[in-house]
Write a structure and sequence with these properties.
With 414 residues, the protein is of the alpha+beta class. It has a single domain, classed as Outer membrane efflux proteins (OEP) (Up-down Bundle), CATH 1.20.1600.10. It is 70% helix and 10% strand. The strands form two sheets. A four-stranded antiparallel beta sheet has the order 2-3-5-6. It starts with a helix and ends in a 6-residue tail after the last helix. 26% of the residues are buried.
């Protein structure tokens, strides 16, 4: 279903008829496709693969030649016979034979580094997904608050109209009616504030998913919702250990460090330089072979070997720290979800309905003259505050769930 929605959305863009409402999955997909920051980060993988090509290259052969004893300063002696008998001509071809499997070790080290880079890029994508989801929830909250503010304003206007008729009929005092009008101003201000908050939330979201990805008048699809988490903390920890890209990067880092040690040991082996030389001297042609290899008396790459050994220890400690961080993130995220769920449960257990019922009873009682105006206005404010707090609790729960998704490294937790 998600794939169909995304394809439909992309088709709409291609036809210039992009829908004005996007889901959270579409927002994330658009961010993954259009974020310039992620695009720039992904080039690191291509750069790393290019370094694999460099690491796998063999040494170039060496071509050398020379001409000696040419009579440049006695031109009169220039003749083919004199040059053939008195001058010397040499042509040689040399090649450096790498010992210790240096090329294979370089390639393995480069490939392991590519694995680290790929996992690191995936971790950056994980962070972007969280930022998009977080901003999307903020947009949903702003949308919900605006919808409630508009509906509450509409309801209160009806109450104002009724009380205006009561004032004209002499049922209430002018002072009471003015207090109701002042309360109406607060409701209208709340609508304006909510409209601004929604506009800013959509602008911030559009920055993450790409300004060209959606039209200016786009909106978010969906509502604030409450879905209890079914997975246990242990299940989520196991999932995170297997899925978190930053932990995979740390594991690959250990392998990469070991590859660097192997390469350092290979670089400690001395290479053999072989040259085959053809010479023509005094009318005679001959062949010569030269072999050149350094003697490993002082420099055996001891320093780099020692450094890479310490680097392996560093990578092991980094991996341990990464595992502990993953477990901590999951446990904190899980506790955050459970705490937010308890707050939502409190509202849904009856407090939300009770606030509305109290407002309705007080309003009816006030219209019948059994309750003072201040009680009615106080009940109205209490109801509005409870509704807004409930929406904030839903948003906090969804944000806690997104934090847990980021901690685990996957989006499907329910």
């Amino acid at each position: 279903m998600r794939t169909i929605l995304v394809l439909t959305f992309i088709s709409g863009l291609a036809l210039g008829q992009a829908p004005t409402r996007i889901t959270i999955d579409q927002a994330i997909d658009l961010a993954m496709r259009n974020s310039p920051t992620i695009k720039a980060t992904r080039t690191q993988i291509d750069q790393s693969k290019a370094e694999e090509t460099t690491a796998n290259l063999r040494p170039n052969p060496t071509l050398q030649w020379d001409t000696q004893f040419l009579p440049f300063f006695t031109p009169s002696t220039f003749s083919s016979g004199d040059i053939n008998q008195a001058s010397q001509f040499d042509v040689g071809l040399g090649y450096l034979f790498e010992r210790g499997r240096k090329r294979q070790s370089r390639l393995k080290a480069a490939q392991d580094q590519t694995s680290v880079t790929t996992a690191t890029v995936a971790d950056n994508e994980r962070a972007l997904k969280f930022n998009v989801a977080q901003q999307f929830v903020n947009a949903l909250l702003a949308k919900s608050n605006l919808d409630f503010a508009i509906q509450d304003l509409k309801t209160f206007k009806q109450s104002v109209d009724i009380n205006e008729e009561r004032y004209k009929a002499g049922d209430i005092s002018k002072n009471d009616f003015l207090k109701i009008k002042v309360q109406l101003l607060q409701n209208e201000t709340a609508v304006a504030t909510a409209r601004l908050a929604k506009a800013q939330a959509l602008i911030s979201l559009r920055e993450l998913i790409g300004y060209q990805s959606v039209p200016r008048d786009y909106d978010v699809a969906g509502d604030l919702e409450y879905q209890r988490l079914k997975s246990t903390q242990d299940e989520l920890e196991t999932m995170a250990i297997n899925q978190r890209p930053d932990l995979r990067a740390a594991k690959f880092g250990v392998t990469a460090a070991q590859s660097q040690l192997t390469l350092a040991k290979a670089n400690g082996k001395q290479d053999l330089d072989v040259t085959a030389l053809y010479s023509h001297v005094a009318g005679t042609s001959s062949a010569s072979f030269f072999f050149n290899i350094p003697l490993p008396i002082f420099n055996r790459n001891q320093g780099e070997i020692a450094r890479t050994q310490f680097a392996i220890s560093q990578a092991d400690f980094t991996l341990t720290a990464a595992e502990e961080t993953v477990r901590t993130d999951v446990r904190n995220g899980y506790e955050g979800v459970e705490d937010s769920a308890q707050i939502v449960d409190l509202y849904q257990s009856g407090y939300l309905d009770q606030a509305k019922e109290s407002r309705d009873i007080t309003e009816f009682s006030y219209r019948q003259g059994a309750s003072p105006l201040l009680d009615y206005l106080d009940a109205e404010r209490s109801y509005r505050a409870t509704e807004l707090a409930y929406r904030q609790a839903l948003a906090s729960y969804m944000l806690a769930l997104e934090t847990l998704r980021q901690a685990v490294g996957v989006r499907n937790l329910l």
